[in-house]
Every structure is written in structure tokens, then in C-alpha cells.
Input
Amino acid sequence: MDFALSKEQLMIQQMVREFAQNEIEPIVAEYEAEGRFPEEIIKRLGEIGILGMTVPKELGGGGCDTVSYTLAIEEISRACASTGIAVSVNNSLACFPLLTFGTDEQKAEFLTPIANGSSLGAFGLTEPSAGSDAAMQQTVAVKDGDDYVINGIKHFITNATVAEVYIVFAMEDKSKGTRGITTFILKKGDPGFTFGTIEDKLGIRASIQAELVFENCRIPASRMLGQSGKGFKIAMMTLDVGRIGVASQALGIAQASLDRSIQFANEREQFGKPIGRLGAIQEAVANMATDIEAARMLVRYAAWCKDSGKPFSKEAAMAKLFASEMAMASATKAIQIHGGYGYIKDYPVERYFRDAKITEIYEGTSEIQRLVIALNVLSGK
Ligand code: CAA
Output
């Protein structure tokens, strides 16, 4: 058993850590306060190969493994969870299905631009009536000659208005249930495709979640991704990958919570000494550090399973469940360690607390992760 990162993985970790510290950390508070999408940062991350990390180099990607991808998302999210999710969604929810199910033509037209950083991708599965119950798709796709006509609304879609390429799921044949759902590739500017509400949120305020609205949106049949009726499987397989990304994002938020807690505990004096010399604070910091390391093992293991060609659905769900709940607990502890200072906006831990919460919700709530894990273990997997 080898827990060591390879030379290449260490290089990527170091490069992204430095980028996050030097380029993201100084501006994050301002962008979060203004709810401004970090367009320039995303562009720079594209230039250094972080937007399509596991896409082969010849298709415009970074040619890295999934473990490297987790390292990058952790480091980015340690500085800014909003940037972390924008990058994670592009890599996992947009690049992965195009790479895995796309034709050569689709890869050239849609994957390469979002992998090389020229533009961004998004994933349109969630609807007002289809959240945890993703099979309840109300968006419909009707074949009309050589075209498909799409009608419906997707909501809470990360990167919605800033993306150019969209992986969209629609019901083609309701009588077939999940086997009636098909995946399509949409482009910004397709006739009948517009944006609706842009959400005002508790956390990850510099990221964008908005509605995709399809009104008689006509696209050529060549935009179907994978086969007709295989959309639900594509969505589930894609979310397995996405959950490794969200788990890495949660890990970054938790690590940032610990970083700031250590700094504060060493500087803040009460009862004539730094509070880090008090047993209660030591216990909190020790538990945070241990839980973060446990989450890191689960995240890297899930990524390693994927890289090794092993099943990783259960492992991704475990990593996401544990890392997200751990991030929420770590951010809560960080505020407690900071006392009153933790509750005001002068210190970043209140942001970590607000950002951590979403990791327990999107790309499958903690309840859905437990369901996925339970179904796997009960069937002996
Ligand atoms: N890989 C491959 N196939 C899978 C699969 C997986 N991980 N999970 C299920 N399937 C297949 C099943 O084998 C089954 O196939 P057959 O038809 O051949 O039998 C089919 O899919 C249907 O499976 P289920 O009967 O288990 O489906 P279900 O309706 O009971 O749903 C669920 C299962 C796990 C609850 C699923 O609905 C789910 O994951 N829900 C949560 C959705 C979610 O994560 N949404 C987040 C959206 S993205 C987002 O958050 C926005 C963003 O921008 C960040």
C-alpha cells in the first residue's frame, strides 16, 4: 500500500496551491461580497490546464489522473469555494460525459473548448420537481424530422449564465421511466434557450446558479449525447464523478477552517496565554485535524478507484457524505474557536460556514449519499 503522491501529483498540488494563495486568496472576500463571478481567475485556471484536467492532452485537456484533480479542487476551494465548484462542475459534470459518451465530432466541437479553457460547461439535470428524485424529469424532448424540440426548465444550474456548453437531460418517452430519459448537448444561443432566475444564495456567492429555460428549443439530432433512453445512466455515472469533486471542495473548506483556527489559536491570548494552550481549544483542533485527514483518505481512495478502473459509485458517495458533513462541523468549530470574531465578516470563517453547507446539498444531498451507500452495501458491493 502506497500513500505517497507521485512527483507529478505533488507538482500539480504545489502549482495550484501557489496559484490559489497568490491569485485567488487576495480577491476572494471582495468577489464574495459583491457576488461577482471570478471570470479572470477561471480564465487563468484554464490557461494552466485546470479546467479539463482528466481530458487527454490531444483533446485540449491536462491529461492528469483523478487524484490530481482532487488535489487541485481542494487547493482552489481552500481559497475560494465558489471558484472550486465552477471548476469542479466544468471538469466532472461537463467534460466527463462528453469525453465518455461523445462522438469524435462532439468531442472536437464541445469538449475541447471547455477542456482548454476557452469556455465553460454546465450540467442541466435538476428541475423544480426533480431534485433528489432526478427521474421525475418534466423537460421533454420531441423528435421532429432531423431535429429535437426541447421544452422545460432546469434550475439551480451551476455556471448557467457563464457557460457556453450544456449537458441537458430530457424525457423522450415517459412510459419508459428512467429508460425514457435522453441526454443532449445545448449551446448558448440555441434558438429558444434563455436564462431565468439567477439565485441569491447563503454561500458560494461568487458562483452562479440559475435557471435554463427551453421554449420550443430546436437542436439537430446530432446533439444527442450517447444513445436515446440512456440519459439517466449518463446522469448517474456523471454524478459519481462529480461527487468526488464536491468532496474535494468540502475538504478544501475544512482545511481552510483549520488553517485559520490554528493561526487564531496561536495569536489570540486569553487567561495570560495563547488560547491554543487551553485544553478545550486543543481538543477542537485535534478533532478537526483528524477528521480532515480521514476525509482526505476517503476522497483520494474514491479517486484512486476511478483511476484504477474499479467501481467507485459507493466510494464517491462515502467521500462526499463524510467530507461535506465534516466540512460543516469544521467550519462550525472554527467559528467557535474564534468566538465573537468568528461571527463577523472581518474573518473568513463565517464564509467557510456559509460555503460548507451547500456541500451537504448539491450533487446529491447527504440523505441521497446514504441511500446510494446503503443500496450498495445491502447488495453486497
Ligand atoms: N451508475 C450507473 N447506472 C446507475 C447508477 C450509477 N451510479 N445509479 C443508478 N443507475 C441506473 C440503475 O442501474 C438503473 O438502471 P436500469 O434501468 O438498467 O435498471 C437506473 O439507473 C435507475 O436506477 P434507480 O432505480 O436506482 O433510480 P432511482 O430513480 O431510484 O434514483 C437516486 C436513484 C440515487 C435517488 C438518483 O435519483 C439520485 O442520485 N438522486 C440525486 C440526484 C442528484 O444528485 N442531483 C444533483 C444534480 S446536479 C447539481 O447538484 C447541480 C449543480 O450544478 C452542482
User: Anything to note?
Assistant: The longest helix spans residues 231-267. The chain has three domains: 7-120, 122-229, 232-378. DSSP finds ten helices and ten strands in the chain.
